[in-house]
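Study the following:
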Amino acid sequence: MYAMQYEITLPADYDMEIIRRRVATRGHLTDAYEGLGFKAYLIRERGTDGSPVNQYAPCYLWDDTGGMNRFLWGGGGFNGIIDDFGRPAVHHWTGAAFLEGPARRAAPRAASRHSEPVPAGADPAVVVGRALGEAEKRAGEPGVHSTVVAVDPRHWEVVRLTLWEHAASETDAVRYELLHLSTPHLDEIPVGRQWG
């Protein structure tokens, strides 16, 4: 399992309705994408939910690298982003856990992201284990669709992404509006820890 996100920060006066229309007309194109657990079409709007920026920031959960590779450089869709916005940096993380919440069958409308560095002297197993415990608590909260825990071992960062049925938790610094969720192979993503 692999998580991936790119963030396209837009001008402060950018009309976010342009992104909403883009997702409304193109979001369905990933509804049957091979290898894709989910694609959450996420935006942040300046002045909403504490966001200092306008941003288009889709997040993906892949069940293997084949689909991710095909999407990024195999002619499978990323070229549309490059054509319209330039080529953004793509953050990617190795999946550590996928957890379902009580609102798993609902259509989520929000998302939140929490990131935490793994300090240089810390045992990664302890930090990731703690993040997993926090994610398990989060997954039990009302309104949670699902939670993903993922790790970037290059920069040593643990990320938790949560999809919410309604509003995202205000305890997470980064909150998004979720415009569309494609879930072609979400039922194939193993629930729980992705190791051991």
